[in-house]
Amino acid sequence: MAYSKDQLLARLKDLQIEFSQYEHPAVMTVEAQAKYVGNIGGGLSKNLFLKDKKHRFYIVSALADTKVDMKVLSQRLGLGKGGLRMAPEETMLEILKVPLGSVTPFALVNESARDVALLLDKGFKAQERCFFHPLSNDMSISLNTNDLDKFLKSIGRDPAYVDLEANPAVGKDQPPDLAAFVPSGSTVLPDLPDPASAVQSAGGSHVNANNNCKAATEKAIKPAKDVQNVKDKSAKAVNPSSSFTDAEKFVEEILDRISAKLLSEKLFMQTKEGNIAQQGQELGNEIANRLRKCCYPELKNLATIFKNTAYTQGFHAGKASSLTQCPRT
């Protein structure tokens, strides 16, 4: 279950964190947010939801006027110059559980975001109070960094503040200074081609192109109930499901799964940027990426079931053969 704005505010109160809240119309940019809270005093934040080529995710939370060079940041993480890009909106909803324009460090309270890395601008430390959205861009809350740290520690996070404008040399004798922030606990799928497009979002959040994440992968890896049932039966019964004992039916099962995934993912929906004809290569890359993301765990699961079924049948066949050959006494 995703945290709601009210649940988050209640949690902050339970932690005895002092904050002020300001309701306002939904805002999609820091500039729009500034119209409502910019005159109060404190640092407005912009929050970027990023992904790398191995489908690992990052929230970069910076002061509104901090210049974040994506290429430099990517190198400092050890990902190469083009290793970072904006994460797609659907992934934001799936992992952070917040809509476009509402990216915030507070989204890490959701279990689905447990493997998302967080980089905080060291400039926040110089501010008396900092503004963030509390999971919704129709409100801003202000608090100091000590209380932000208190919240992050309450969810098992160790707050890390870095100089996001620094551009240190990276080379053979100078390793990437931010490499320790690359997530290590997330499931990583093989590198896939991946289209790029960017949409700037609110209170400092950006979004775009495509990908998956641990939560998406875990969701895909969870075998469907019928697959799990087949697996359980194959372990207990001598005569498992015929779809896993007949190669032709097994292939049909795979094709059925792929078709179902294609339909469920709605891969052929028209994109926001334009129609399908205009998207061309990007749409093809998107389909290939999502198809791999959705089907890889399922197909691996089916292949394992098929292998186990063959092993089980061979075992019982061998046992039956040995019994028939045993001399009677």
How would you characterize the overall build of this protein?
The longest helix has 45 residues, at 281-325. The chain has ten helices and ten strands. Helices cover 40% and strands 14% of the residues. It is globular, with a radius of gyration of 25 Å. Strand 2 (43-52) and strand 3 (57-63) form a beta hairpin. The chain has two domains: 5-181, YbaK protein (Alpha-Beta Complex), CATH 3.90.960.10; 247-311, no CATH class. By secondary structure, the chain is an alpha/beta fold. Mean pLDDT is 75; it is low at 186-243 and 263-281. The chain has helices spanning 5-14, 30-37, 70-76, 89-96, 145-154, 214-221, 225-236, 247-265, 276-279, 281-325; strands at residues 20-23, 43-52, 57-63, 84-86, 117-121, 130-132, 139-143, 161-162, 198-200, 206-208. Strands 1, 2, 3, 4, 5, 6, 7 and 8 form an eight-stranded mixed sheet that branches. Belongs to the PRORSD1 family. One of its GO terms (molecular function) is aminoacyl-tRNA deacylase activity. It holds the Pfam family tRNA_edit.
Keyphrases for this structure?
eight-stranded mixed beta sheet, 2 domains, 329 residues, alpha/beta, YbaK/aa-tRNA-synt-asso_dom_sf
